[in-house]
Amino acid sequence: MAERADIVDTGHRYRRAGRILVKAPAALIFDLLADPSRHPEFDGSGTVVSSTAAAPQRLRQGATFGMSMRLGVPYAIKNTVEEFDDPGLIAWRHIGRHRWRYELRAVDEETTEVTETFDASTALFPPALRLMNAYENNQKAILITLVRLKELAERIAGESESGSR
Q1: End-to-end alpha carbon distance in the chain
Q2: Whole-model pTM above 0.70?
Q3: What is the mean pLDDT of residues 4-24?
Q4: Helices in 34-127 by DSSP H: which ranges?
Q5: Residue 165: pLDDT band by 50, 70, 90 thresholds?
Q6: Does residue 89 form part of some domain?
Q7: pLDDT at residue 108 above 60?
């Protein structure tokens, strides 16, 4: 049976979040999140195609990175890292100013709780995102993203573990 992520009640009308336990160290998961070229591998929205040539290999505070996207038609978006605390927190936003935030909490050396939040409280005009169904769509995408991130991180952790024997 496939693992599921849980919806987190943020208590805020402009935020949606989900949480999942991952059997991988926080540092490994953070490395995936901090590498824009890996984002299409775990994106649950179905819109992230690839990082652009201008994207750094590893994100840092204040870094900008482009992503090739597709929502009906192809487009590109530029993101800026607003929060960066390796290996516990990373968040970025694009021109609309809403952001995607990942919080990682080590449960033990091999297990990490990952919380992803779509935060439109920082958006230029949060009510407009309702017209695009952004809150419901992002809630669904978060749950899929977290499951994909878990599968990817656990596969890499398993490969690392079997390679070290």
Answers
A1: 28
A2: yes
A3: 97
A4: 39-42
A5: low
A6: yes
A7: yes
| 71 pLDDT more than 70 | yes
Token digits of residue 60: 């840092």
The pLDDT tens digits of the residues spanning 38-65 come to 999 999 999 999 999 888 999 999 999 9
Q: Does some domain include residue 100?
A: yes
Q: What letter represents residue 11's amino acid?
A: G
Q: Where in the sequence is the domain holding 46, given as residue range(s)?
A: 18-149
DSSP-derived pairing of the beta strands 15-22 and 111-119? antiparallel
- Structural contact between residues 118 and 138, judged by C-beta atoms closer than 8 angstroms: yes
Which one, of 165, 157, 146, 152, lies nearest residue 25 by Cα?
157
**How many Cβ atoms from other residues are within 10 Å of residue 52's Cβ?**
15
CB atoms within 10 A of CB 160: 12
Q: Where do the DSSP E strands lie in the chain?
A: 6-8, 15-22, 48-51, 64-71, 73-85, 89-93, 99-108, 111-119
Inside any domain, residue 25: yes
What does the chain come to in residues? 165
